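Methods, example record. To illustrate the input and output format used throughout this study, we show the complete record for DUF3179 domain-containing protein. The sequence lines were provided to the predictor; the line carrying structure tokens was produced by it.
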Amino acid sequence: MKRSFLFFLIPILLLIILEVMSVYFIMPFPGSQLGLTDAESGPASLGRVELAYWLHKNIGWLRIVGLLLLAYPAFSIIIKPRRTWHRYLAGGLVLLYGAVLYQVNMEMMADHMFLQPIHKRVVPMSENKIPLNKLVVGYQSMGQATAYPIQLIGYHHQVRDTVGGEPVMITYCTVCRTGRVFSPVVRGQADEFRLVGMDHFNAMFEDKRTGSWWRQATGEAIVGPLKGKSLTELTGRQMTLGEWAAEHPNTRVLQADPAFAEKFDGMKNYERGLSKGNLTRRDSASWKPKSWVIGVERSGASKAYDWNALETKRILNDVLGNEPLLLTMAPDSVSFGAWSRRVGVKTLEFQYANKKLTDKETGSVWTWRGHCIAGALVGQRLTAIPKAHQEFWHSWRSFHPDTERDITQ
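The corresponding predicted structure is encoded as:
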């Protein structure tokens, strides 16, 4: 093969590889995402994200250099090819590069695959069209409550809103089953974020002002100028819209944008664990990568609780970070709560029998929401534990490598 053709072949192949690598490490291609086991959660995995970030920030000038190196040999092959097949092969490779360039930058980029609402509508319950049995991430602030259906935010990945006069960022990652609410305020100013890819199978966002990349599950910036900083996590709660509305009768509800009806329809089975996709399906057995758990953080400690155990027993008593903890399951078997078992100076132990939740100390009757409705403690309310999330087991252990696992139930 003549030297002039080699001088063409090498840069065109490098340009193609460059485009592929710019998305490979931050999208769920085979082998691209580490983090399904604790051993894979270390520096080697983060190094891949750092490489992807470097390519993302430098790909412009890398393309220019590659095209400049390509220009003269390409001209020589087209004008005076040593062999006719060189011209056809060169033309084919140029077309291939163009196709890869288009696919990577227009089809494979995360923010082109999962779009933001075009017509965002947040309405009162009197105008709501979302069924009451749909799961939502609910958030309230300054007396205003809003529900965000998982079927909708699971596609969008993030929705910006204002609740109680404050900007909020409602996020969801279907591959981790993580719903989080954050304040988008960075360094005293509300920023804009776009979905840029994945890390450990978890959504990553890029802020507009500094270009730093942030993990959705933790709100931490992992690369970029703000590396090590964290968004302020706000207390969101997951339950059915019906249960949320029972607590917050004046809630607003995010409605489906008709422009994405087909996308939403494809996610209708996700929230109940009936998705067929390998990335979003549920493992019905306990402690498998895609098994559901409730992960709880308290006073620097973290622990995962088996969803199947809670569904069977309806309540779980435990102690985490010196805090007596109670997990409760609602009658609908999909809504849950996490509460402190302290009431004044007392620490209560709870039991569930004959479809009734009572404390052993006084025999008082409680709801799954932590409200005492009968007995010596009537009128008392348990204090909610804010950082309690339902998610896939692989996600919780990836981002909480020191987590305990509750296997006593």
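Annotations derived from this record:
The mean pLDDT is 92.
The first strand starts at residue 122 and ends at 124.
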